[in-house]
Amino acid sequence: MKLQEIYNFLDKISPFELQEKWDNSGLIIGDMSRDVSQIVLSLDVDDEMIESTKEGTLFIVHHPLIFGKLTQLDFAKYPSNLIEKMILKKQSLIAMHTNFDQTHLNKYVFEKVLGFTLESQNAFLCTTKGKWNYKELLNLIKEKLNLPTLKVIGKKETIRSIALTTGAGASLMDEVEADCFLTGDIKYHDAMKAMSENLMMIDIGHYESERFFAEILLEELKVLPILAIISNSKNPFHIETI
Q1: Which of 10, 14, 150, 232 sits 20 to 30 Å CA-CA off 214?
Q2: Is 237 a domain residue?
Q3: pLDDT over 90 at 81, yes or no
Q4: Hey, what long-range contacts does 5-12 have (CB within 8 A, 24 or more apart)?
């Protein structure tokens, strides 16, 4: 398939125009007129992934490799080191970030992974109502997201409403109308603000809450006449127990 054909399909299922103004979803590296030999789906692209895939591969990732202003290509530094290798192998890269959050990812994690019933959703926030015991909710989240530990702000023995956004969503806390807000990458000052406003928050991890991107998109791509495979990128963080 031509890269343009695949791009058009992706734009149909999750329009790139939905992305936030600071985002860089869409074509990152490539030529729309080129043929694509296979598609590799991943949260991120890394050195090992590029080395192990063949010429003409299209990577479709969640996180854009280029964010903001790129003023030089120093091939000893990230992300230029990866860009150079991809260009030499005639590989392409498309990112589906905040547009895919809105159309697929948040809802999937909320319903399919955590098992909540979606009652309302705006662009990024999924919300439900019910009744959860504090410890039961924490155990559910740890089990479903495979989190050995949880960072929690505030404590409510009974939670009657839950909101979620995957990735780093603490900036949305002013829009949350729920007892408990689930998101990742919660900063110290966001935690202090949540405490002062009696908003319980649980840090569900950035990688951990978004790692389902590839499996969601794979289902969508099965209708295309081209091989699409998942290559899981590594979590840049690891937990030391010593």
Answers
A1: 150
A2: no
A3: yes
A4: 6/36, 6/39, 6/58, 6/94, 6/224, 6/226, 7/32, 7/94, 9/221, 9/224, 10/60, 10/94, 10/96
